[in-house]
Amino acid sequence: MKNTIAAISTPYGEGGVGIIRISGDNAEEILRKIFVPAVPGDPVNRRMTYGHIVDEEQNIVDEVLCVLMKKPKTYTAEDVVEINCHGGMVPLRKTLELVLRSGARAAERGEFTKRAFLNGRLDLTQAEAVMDLISAKTDRTYDVAVEQMEGILSRKIRMLRNMLLDVLVDLTVNIDYPDEDIEELTYRKLFTGLDSVRQQIQTLIDSADTGRILREGLKVAIIGKPNVGKSSLMNGLLRESRAIVTEIPGTTRDTIEESLSIRGIPVILTDTAGIRRTDDKIESIGIERSKASFNEADLVILVLDGSRELEQEDYDIMEHVNPSRTIVLINKSDLPQVLSASEISSALKGARTVSESMKDIEGLKALEDCIVSRVETDTSARRESILVTNARHRDLLEEGMRSLCDAIDAVLRKEPLEIIEIDVNSAYERLGEIIGEAVADDILNEVFSRFCLGK
Predict the structure, then answer these.
(1) Residues annotated within a binding site for Mg(2+)
(2) Binding-site residue set for (6S)-5-formyl-5,6,7,8-tetrahydrofolate
(3) pLDDT greater at residue 444 or residue 254
(4) Are the CB atoms for 213 and 265 separated by under 8 Å?
């Protein structure tokens, strides 16, 4: 990490300002080589200075504002320089090339944040939250990322590790010094300590599904037989004409996917081809894709035509959906109705039913209430608690839970303390991997490779 790195840290393209970031021991030296301040003098720590970037022949490359930030109180905990150029590709490219010729090397993806982690400014969960913050599409996703970047999950994991460390200390003392005048470690005391940690880890694991939805989006599939209003529903939720709507059954022959935000919750909406028996080869392919979409969805909206009685095709679709994650929309309530909510309740027990017309904005709001409640049911109880949003964190928590349960089983069987210590230590290490206190280099490289350049 002794070398100095540099990258463009603002999005590529044209803009008012573009920033080049430099980090490392030679950052100040590089600045002195290429920057001529308008008022002669040495760079002042944390003071923005106006001047020009010049090349080896003293030709002006750009008119800039520069700031030098001395370690350790910087993003990377190293000396950092930021050069504010005009926001076009040519001045940014020319300035970066000059920085690289002056002794820096091009930064890898996420390398600035990786250095912040390796230098102890951030732990691994906080570093991962930085990318979540950058990629957040809704206010609620942003709020969760900010909490994690501020260390809410890290503090919880450290608390659990300290609880396990206390157990490990007691185990070690009783194993290595059984004849000393120390308090005997009873199996009851062991069980109490380990079970408390187990319950708290389980709470974190239980939050992972909601956390994944807030981070990646709620996958919603709109399904039903042809010409029941699926595409009209998608257009209504998007508030734009995205899908073609006609009275001809089978107009939609492939899945159409769009992203939107419904009251702060990111939603990935998929309009599917109408499901029916057909000899049309192209339509058949679309129908198979429809089935795959609703099998992968977090929530399914089954659209039925309220002006028509249920047909065999409707029953066939109902057989393939999970009622607990299905909303049945009885559409076209502006027409004479022959289909009732009670009939749906008996045919698909456990599914929520909404009877509205998608031509009416109030009907759309009623459906949005049901969609939001799929997430709100979980998040309302967790509003003041911690959400696990990262798949890596969830997997390590589950691995730690397995080791912890093995340790508790061994306690209940009153097995030797040496056996119990192995499983407790395994759980302790898995929790450490979450915050980066015990993690392999290849895992670190994988985590930071997902970052953008310049961050």
Answers:
(1) 231, 252
(2) 21, 82, 121, 455
(3) 444
(4) yes
